[in-house]
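S.,

Sequence below, as promised.
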Amino acid sequence: MTDTNQTSPQRPHFDAQRAIDFARSELFERTFKEGMGLVEETAAYLDGPGRAASKRLSRGAALAYAGESMRLTTRLMQVASWLLVQRAVRDGEIKLEEAASEKYRLISREQQPAATFAGSDELPEALKALIIRGAAIYERVRRLDETMYETGGETAANPVSEQLAKLTQAFGR
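The prediction came back faster than expected:
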């Protein structure tokens, strides 16, 4: 079975000038600083006060802490990666068409809001605040990505997401 995407990749249609203008805008600079600042703040918390706080949690809450902190760091790394790609486009280090490719997009990375972990209600307030802020910047960057690289209202089909949806439908959840 051959992968048709390798032989004839579909290029998304987008307004290149809008994407370039955004990468040069004050909004991008503020978003970049906020996103990278949140990455640093989260890392400092998880390596310091968060680590100490997690040792005092019940077993269930400690598992929730591990899961939520992993989800948070994954989300923030996706945001940081996207922001760095946009800066690279602005600085002429990569082509806009490359930045618009599926591998750099945030659209459809998370199909539906993830369920909370058992014990999440016992998490430290500082971690809960970081989770809320991380979700907010992820959603903002996802919307920017969608707006900048929109494909005329149609999002390219994601075969993995389609298969996961079929499995969920078949086995329930």
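The radius of gyration is 19 Å.

Coffee later?
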